[in-house]
Structures are given as structure tokens and as C-alpha cells.
Amino acid sequence: MNQKNSLGLNSCFLDLNDPIQLFNVWMNEAKKTEPNDPNALSLATADKNGTPSVRIVLLKDFSKDGFTFYTNLDSPKSLDIEDNPRAEMCFHWKSLQRQVRVFGSLNKTSDEVADKYFSSRDYDSKIGAWASEQSKTLQNRSDLFKRVDGFKKTYPETGNVPRPENWSGWILEPTIIEFWLEGPNRIHERMRYYKELNNWIKKLLNP
């Protein structure tokens, strides 16, 4: 039997006034059913001219303060964000036939938060952050591996690799969060939360 919440939506939408709580429930369910990377999301940004770009990144943390991912600060995505700090994230969990869109503004995480996360990464990932000049032209793959080997010599101790100054986190502070469930005959179920001042308002949307 298809149970419904108070708004007539599938019970998976629950009856919560806080979208972060609902996202937490959906993410935990996705961790049980998605074969790989339930924290993968499409991140859409635009440069100062409005030219859009989208790519997959991994969500590393979320809370009432926002949704956090990490990257090279010289990368195209970071340069876009510097010019235009508004972006949208889209999670799609095919196994659950669910989607979540998150729109808001982006700010850098604090150095303390970035340092803490960087220290939790495995050794090779830390070295990779130093070695990769993200998205810049590479003449030969061997050049990259030479840089990797070079930084391994510079930082041979696995527990003593500092965070590069040009590597940090971005946190998206949401103002809109939309939850979507696939329905028969494309009659999907959609609920959108809007942030007004410090309160979340939820509304149903047409498919």
C-alpha cells in the first residue's frame, strides 16, 4: 500500500519542516541501495559571463550550515565560483528513483575545517592534491607521475603531508531544496523548500 504524508505525497517525503533532516534520511537510504558513491552530485556553476558548466563532485559533509565539497582552488569550478558564487547541486539516486536539487550561494570553508578533512584523506590522495594542476593541459601522463614521485620524496611521511594552499573546501548554503520522486506516467511527486529569513517554507510543485 502506498502510504501518504499530510500533503498527499508518498510517505518517503515524511512530514518534516526541516529539509536537512529529510535529506539526511534520503541520503542514508541511498547509502544502502546505491552501488557506488551515493554522495555523488552534479554541480552546476556559471562564469561571470553566464556560461554554464556542470561536473560530478563528491559531497563530503552536510549540516544545517550547508553542503561541502573539496577541490583545487585554481580549477575552473573554483574560478567560476569566485566570479559568480551561486550554484546548484543535483543528486540522482536511480536505485530509489529519487532526486534532490539544492540551490544557494557558496563560500570557502575555514582553514581549520579544510585542514581537518585533508588530514583524513589517504596518503596517495594527499599527494595527488599536490601533484595535479587540475584541468591544465598535460603534455604526457608521465609528466604527472613524475610530479607524484617528486612530491612523495618531498613528503615521505604518510601522516605529515600539509594541505596545499590552493586546495580547500566550498560550502553551499542553501536557499532552495527540492525533493523529487519518480511517478507512473511521468506524474512525478515534487516538494520544494524555500528559505525565508531563517525559516523553511515547503510547497508542492506540479510534475
What does this structure look like?
The chain has a single domain (11-120, 167-205), classed as Pnp Oxidase, Chain A (Roll). Helix 4 packs across helix 5. It has 207 residues and is α+β, with helices and mostly antiparallel strands. Strands 1, 2, 3, 4, 5, 6, 7, 8 and 9 form a 9-stranded antiparallel β-sheet that branches. The chain has helices at 19-33, 76-83, 111-120, 123-131, 141-154, and strands spanning 40-46, 52-58, 61-63, 66-72, 86-93, 98-108, 167-181, 189-196, 199-205. It is built from 5 helices and 9 strands; from the N terminus they run αββββαββαααβββ. The model has no long low-confidence stretch (mean pLDDT 96). The longest helix has 15 residues, at 19-33.
Helix and strand arrangement:
Layout: H1 19-33, E1 40-46, E2 52-58, E3 61-63, E4 66-72, H2 76-83, E5 86-93, E6 98-108, H3 111-120, H4 123-131, H5 141-154, E7 167-181, E8 189-196, E9 199-205
Antiparallel strand pairs: 1-2, 1-5, 3-4, 4-7, 5-6, 6-7, 7-8, 8-9
Count of spatially separate domains: 1
Report the sheet with the most strands, covering strand number, pairing sense and barrel closure: 9 strands, antiparallel
**If you compute it from the alpha carbons, what radius of gyration comes out, rounded to the nearest whole angstrom?**
20 Å
Strand content: 35-45%
CATH fold-level assignment = Pnp Oxidase, Chain A
Number of helices: 5
Helix content: 25-40%
Low-confidence stretches: none
Measure the end-to-end span: 22 Å
Mean pLDDT across all amino acids: 96
Number of strands: 9
CATH class: Mainly Beta
Within CATH, the superfamily carries the name: Electron Transport, Fmn-binding Protein, Chain A
Which class do the helix and strand fractions yield? alpha+beta
State the order of secondary-structure elements, H for helix, E for strand.
Answer: HEEEEHEEHHHEEE
CATH architecture classification = Roll
Shape annotation: elongated
Quaternary structure state of the chains depicted? single chain
